[in-house]
């Protein structure tokens, strides 16, 4: 059972890591620095994580898992409403997502790519629509589709989220060209 105190501690650790990654690359951030920034002792950190890599892996997993939950809560359909909800979820945690995207250890583009592919595989109907839309073999059609969505999302994040999630929903929906 996770207590609210544990949740608060994990949030403090996440916020500390976010602030440190604004100043230095992940490879230069130490557990000591994270603990100092979060105002916790090392023992508390190690109650939750094995090391900074475990921390990053779990934060990445939690972030993508939450987005995946939004999708599966809404019947596995990649509808405009689901895209909108996912983009707002990213936007609500934009500061962390932004530093995550600039951390080579995370392989952000690759993670987004795999995430989009897993969403598409949940719905063979969408895969078929994509193949018909592009008029090329399925594996190439999916590669082109996934790469375009990943590029748009990555560019939005790299640009600092200038456009609102509402604007990005329209852009992604037009890029996806499925309807």
Describe this structure in words.
- The structure is a single chain.
- By secondary structure, the protein is mostly helical.
- It folds into 2 domains: 1-49, Arc Repressor Mutant, subunit A, CATH 1.10.10.60; 56-176.
- The protein is built from 10 helices and no strands.
- Helix 5 (80-92) crosses helix 10 (165-176) and helix 8 packs across helix 9.
- The protein is elongated and about 55 Å long.
- Residues 30-49 bind DNA.
- Residues 7-67 form the HTH tetR-type domain.
- It comes from Aerococcus kribbianus.
Topology pattern, helix = H, strand = E: HHHHHHHHHH
Q: Care to count the β-strands?
A: 0
* Cα end-to-end separation: 43 Å
Assign the structural class, choosing from mainly alpha, mainly beta, alpha/beta, alpha+beta, or little secondary structure: mainly alpha
- Nearest-angstrom radius of gyration? 18 Å
The coarse overall form would be elongated
Mean pLDDT: 89
Major β-sheet profile:
none
Strand percentage, roughly? Answer: under 5%
Provide the number of structural domains. 2
Low-confidence stretches: none
Helical content stands at over 70%
Helices, by number, come to 10
